[in-house]
Specification:
Blueprint lengths: L1 H25 L8 E11 L6 E3 L4 E6 L2 E6 L5 E6 L6 E4 L4 E4 L4 E5 L5 E5 L5 E7 L4 E6 L5 E5 L5 E5 L5 E6 L4 E6 L4 E6 L4 E7 L7 E7 L4 E7 L2 E7 L5 E6 L4 E7 L4 E6 L3 E9 L2 E9 L6 E5 L4 E8 L10 H7 L3 E3 L3 H5 L18 E10 L1
Antiparallel strand pairs: 1-28, 1-29, 2-3, 3-4, 4-5, 6-7, 7-8, 8-9, 10-11, 11-12, 12-13, 14-15, 15-16, 16-17, 18-19, 19-20, 20-21, 22-23, 23-24, 24-25, 26-27, 27-29
């Protein structure tokens, strides 16, 4: 019996060894790819621009036409709207629970009830918007002067303006006093001291990418990901000194992106119907990990930090709704909300794009709003 037990232990150990050797020969397991895991469609009118995830309150904001639509971030069901406002983007202060949208005037509301608190007169043409956590201020960006209007998120007072020397697009804060802003017309990134509200440096993209419209920031390693339209590229820079670390290809027509510290991935959404995922394997090593097929015109996105998912938006003209559809009937239809994943959306196809669009690059008449969720 003793000899049999020894033999059994020997055979068991040998089996484990063979299994381990076989697994090693096959190499490391492949990473699970990103894909479209959910979509929502709702009918309505008006153009769209930036989408914003309020991760603390689990709400998704989408400015469309003359209102800001609000959805539950987990279920994608409609929960309300902020009306009588033509906005481009949204920002929320998680402490004061005050929401703001980039519009003229800026509208301030209670993030819990969605009730409007006040309107704030600003100059320029508000476009992008960002909440800065260190000083608890909201930065409203404009392509015309003043480039930045700074608002106190507690009471909604304007505390100052900033001249960036160029047209700002997306921005990121490190929460430690530095704000980084894409300058689309300069092919540069402006560095702003949020305490003095002064530009302290500008980083040139060195011809590696042009027309930066999206920006990601790895705060821990101080790495910037400038997402550019032409040439289409992600230019990776050291946030401390602006040194270019890499330049990677992305799709065409980016208008937004970001960085997920939980996965160490930057991402860029493009109007050509692709989402580029870039892996940061170390502070000096970066590679395109995946190109996800999404949907044409899905060029802005936001990050669901709870589920490590990326939410994108687009509009499309449905085949059964003519351009001359009465606006009143369209508004009635806009309350209909359905959860669907269609083969057309999964393949990134849609209706012909010769219809009239507004200045925000989406259909201004009756059209379907598509919300796409990309995850694993």
């Amino acid at each position: 019996m003793k000899h049999l037990n020894s033999l059994s232990r020997f055979l068991f150990a040998a089996g484990i060894g063979l299994f381990t050797a076989s697994a090693s020969a096959q190499g490391p397991a492949k990473a699970i790819p990103y894909k479209i895991v959910n979509t929502v469609q709702t009918m309505g009118t008006g153009g769209i621009d930036y989408v914003y995830a309020d991760n603390d309150n689990r709400q998704l904001y989408i400015p469309r036409g003359n209102q800001v639509l609000v959805f539950d971030l987990d279920t994608l069901k409609s929960v309300g709207s902020i009306t009588n406002v033509r906005a481009h983007g949204v920002a929320v202060d998680p402490k004061s629970q005050h929401g703001f949208c980039s519009s003229s005037p800026v509208v301030m509301w209670d993030a819990k009830s969605l009730a409007t608190i006040k309107t704030i007169d600003v100059q320029g043409r508000p476009d992008g918007i960002l909440f800065e956590p260190l000083n608890k201020q909201v930065y409203v960006f404009s392509h015309s002067a003043p480039n930045v209007t700074v608002i106190d998120s507690k009471d909604g007072t304007v505390v100052g303006t900033i001249d960036l020397g160029g047209a700002p697009e997306q921005a990121q804060s490190d929460g430690q006093g530095h704000l980084y802003v894409d300058l689309e017309d300069q092919d540069k990134i402006a560095v702003v001291d949020v305490n003095t509200r002064k530009v302290t440096a500008t980083y040139d993209l060195g011809g590696k990418g042009g027309g930066p419209a999206g920006l990601g920031l790895d705060v821990q390693n101080r790495i910037l990901f400038a997402l550019c339209r032409e040439p289409a590229a992600c230019v990776v820079l050291n946030a401390a000194d602006g040194k270019i670390l890499a330049a990677l290809p992305i799709g065409h027509g980016t208008d937004g992106g970001g960085f997920n510290p939980a996965t160490m991935e930057a991402f860029s959404s493009q109007g050509d119907g692709t989402l580029t995922i870039i892996k940061e394997t170390s502070p000096t090593e970066f590679a395109v990990e995946q190109t996800v097929t999404t949907m044409e015109r899905a060029k802005t996105c936001t990050l669901d930090t709870k589920n490590n998912r990326i939410v994108l938006i687009a509009t499309e003209r449905p085949a059964n709704v003519p351009a001359a559809t009465n606006a009143a009937s369209t508004n009635a239809t806009s309350e209909r909300l359905t959860n669907v994943i269609t083969p057309q959306l999964a393949a990134g196809t849609n209706q012909p794009n010769g219809n009239r669009r507004d200045r925000r690059g989406s259909f201004s008449g009756p059209a379907m709003l598509d919300i796409l969720v990309v995850g694993k």
